Amino acid sequence: QVQLVESGGGLVQAGGSLRLSCAASGRTFSSYNAGWYRQAPGKEREFVASVSSWNGGNTYYADSVKGRFTISRDNAKNTVYLQMNSLKPEDTAIYYCNAGNALRGDYWGQGTQVTVSS
């Protein structure tokens, strides 16, 4: 089983930056694909970015964040990061970390609030 704890959210002005962290428990975290999702008030949860398991060689982004957000992972620290630059008010949401493995299951963190003021 994997437990995920997000941190790094907060209030930032438009154009600013934040870095989210997702710390995972468990010795097998490197075998999980990892990703970030977000949910704005009144909207469904949506995909933001993902990074492949092991060496994280493959990354994917939602069109809305391409060129502004960067996902990465440090398996030695059992941590996944989301660097968010050029933030916009529409990026305001609760951001959730996800870890998934076809054999071991799918896990979510509790979320961290990101608020971008205009």
What would you note in describing this structure?
This protein has strands spanning 4-7, 10-13, 18-24, 33-39, 46-51, 59-61, 69-74, 79-84, 93-101, 105-108, 112-117. The chain is mainly beta. The radius of gyration is 13 Å and the shape is globular.
Shape assignment: globular
**How much helix is in the residues?**
under 10%
Strand residue percentage: over 45%
What structural class do you assign from the helix and strand content?
Answer: mainly beta
What Rg do the Cα atoms give?
A: 13 Å
Stretches with pLDDT under 50, minimum 5 residues: none
Helical segment count: 0
Sheet with the most strands, sense and barrel status: 7 strands, mixed
Strand tally is: 11
Question: N-to-C terminal Cα separation, in Å?
Answer: 40 Å
Mean pLDDT: 95
Element-by-element helix/strand order: EEEEEEEEEEE
Question: How is the secondary structure organized here?
Answer:
Elements (H helix, E strand, L loop, with lengths): L3 E4 L2 E4 L4 E7 L8 E7 L6 E6 L7 E3 L7 E6 L4 E6 L8 E9 L3 E4 L3 E6 L1
Parallel strand pairs: 2-11
Antiparallel strand pairs: 1-3, 3-8, 4-5, 4-9, 5-6, 7-8, 9-10, 9-11
